[in-house]
Amino acid sequence: MIRIALDAMGGDFAPRETVAGALDAAAAWSDVQILLVGDERAIGKELAAEKGKGAGKSAIEVVHAAETIGMGEHAAGAVRRKRNSSINVAAKLVADKKAEAVVSAGNTGAMVAAATLFMRLLPGVKRPGIAVTLPTQTGRCLLVDAGANIYCKPEHLYQYALMASVFCEQVLEVRRPKVGLLNVGSEEEKGNALVGQTALMLKDAPIHYGGFAEGNDIYHGRFDVIVCEGFVGNTILKVSEGLAESMMLEMKKHLTANPLTLLGALMAKPAFHKIKDKLDYAEYGGAPLLGAQGVAIIAHGRSNARAIRNAIGVAREWAKHDVNAKIIDTLAAFERQ
């Protein structure tokens, strides 16, 4: 049985959507037990309101946490000040071996801080990295780091590449994933000192390193993994989300402008649904925090029940494949070289 601690109070629509997503996940996977962490009264109210989901309720356990860390709170300070917050309690369950994974749609910085403080990092890992899944023309691409560490050194980016490569191969089932290092150009002489030094390290890495990746390579699908520092990665993520939302709104506005375009839109409705699904973060669940002891998944702050269910699914796959053990072996292999 895979035990997953879910921060039931994290996210814009918690606890309603987190509880609904947990019940959907528990009903979908019989090998999952979900520990709903948060205000037991609020969680109990939502569980009672979810009628017709009895199949999932038997695999649900409520763990009370009296405090909640808000989205706007300073992450490190809130984690230390609010020791009984739902994020902290959920991370401690993993640290104490009472759960294999933690999932939260709450304050991202607080999730990173709690995982680092309580769960600790894998042996040899310098900094954890957030790996987000982005849609591409050929499938999907893993971008790391998306905001956990904005002050990177070459060894941090190097480890991100190794960890993301293992995750991509084991969980996303990509054989020999191609890894790219984000740069302002593909030529070797381009880029800053951080990129140049990291590139030298990656050339000798035990992974399929494909060289520099430019910004337009992300969505073309030329790489399975793209590595960058957290400041850049988080900016790419937010720009991508904003652009996708703007494009969908523009399409809707112009396609409903008159009866003729509306008719065309109705005929093309199945295609538009496929595009929307591909761009929807809920389809990808959550982003793994690579480098933490145990499994840590960071879901989008606006996660609905479907996104929470899928985030739990990612946590389940990670735990099933024992990805962290493979990451440790990969890092150790390089240290021995």
What's the CATH superfamily of the largest domain, by name?
Isopropylmalate Dehydrogenase
How is the largest sheet built, in terms of strand order?
Answer: 3-2-1-4-11-10-5-6-9-7-8
Helical proportion, percent range:
40-55%
End-to-end distance: 37 Å
Rg: 20 Å
Task: Tell me about the largest β-sheet.
Answer: 11 strands, mixed
Number of domains: 2
* Class inferred from helices and paired strands: alpha/beta
Shape: globular
What is the CATH C-level name of the largest domain? Alpha Beta
Q: What's the overall average pLDDT, rounded?
A: 88
Percentage of residues in DSSP E strands: 15-25%
Task: List unreliable stretches of 5+ residues.
Answer: none
Determine the number of helices (DSSP H or I, runs of at least 4 residues): 14
Helix-strand sequence: EHEHHEHHEHEEHEHEHEHHHEEHH
Q: What's the gist of this structure?
A:
Helix content is 48%, strand content 17%. With 337 residues, it is α/β, with parallel strands linked by helices. It has an eleven-stranded mixed sheet with strand order 3-2-1-4-11-10-5-6-9-7-8, with helices on both faces.
